[in-house]
Amino acid sequence: MPFTAFEGTRQLASGDLTVVSETARQALARGAARVLILDDDTGAQLDLPAGAETDSPAPERPARGRPKLGVVAREVTLLPRHWEWLATQPGGASAALRRLVEEARRASQHTDQAREAQTAVYRAMSVLAGDLPGYEEALRALYARNDSRFDDLIADWPADVGAYIGRLAAAERQMRAPA
Fold first, then answer.
1. Which bin fits 12, alpha (ψ -120 to 50), beta or left (φ > 0)?
2. Which of 122, 123, 127, 152 is CA-nearest to residue 139?
3. Which of 12, 76, 113, 118 could be stapled to 5 by a disulfide with Cβ–Cβ 3.0 to 4.6 Å?
4. Is the dihedral of CA 21, 26, 28, 29 positive or negative?
């Protein structure tokens, strides 16, 4: 998973988290006021601990059900006619629901990936460009999928910010392209 560090509007590093976080720490040590690290896949900002090792998590209680298979029990609310239909399915209600979910996941996989890529662009824009001129218009263009307008609006942003947002937007465009 690639990461990118910024000091203000200047890109410091991009690549593996170990390298990027070390570059960020060096920038902070030499007096940088603020360094941001972004996950390129999600656009989310990372908060790295300030050098101290984190405590190990408390051991979890054994879960009920089939935890080795990754089965998680949760409540599902359905209408009586849905329960009646599920009761007639081979393997029972749980097996039928798993089949339906898997079919839906496969059918919407491309759309889901495109939406996640668009959200990554939005998150990165919010963090890096929220105060820049044309930010709101660029967001509108992003969600309207008006690529030429989006590119025009981010062209005047600081070079590193515009290039980074443009790279994420290019990945988003590829995700939404027909397969």
1. alpha
2. 122
3. 12
4. positive
Q: Which residue has the tokens 């570059």?
A: 23
Cβ-proximal residues to 162 (8 Å cutoff; 6+ apart), any chain: 154, 155, 156
DSSP string, 18-59: HHHHHHHHHHHHTT-S-EEEEETTT-PEE---SSSPPPPPPP
Grouping H, G, I as helix, E, B as strand and the rest as coil, residue 4 is strand
Question: For 106-140, how does the pLDDT look when each residue is reduced to its tens digit (9 = 90+)?
Answer: 988 888 899 999 999 999 999 999 999 999 999 99
Q: Tell me the pTM.
A: 0.74
Per domain, the residue ranges of the chain are 1-48, 101-179
Q: Which of 32-41, 69-78, 113-122, 144-153 has the lowest average pLDDT? A: 69-78
- CA–CA separation, 141 and 158 (whole Å): 19
pLDDT for the residue 71 = 75
Q: Torsion-angle region of residue 133: left (phi > 0), alpha (psi -120 to 50) or beta?
A: beta
Report the alpha-carbon distance of residue 21 to residue 41 in Å, rounded: 16
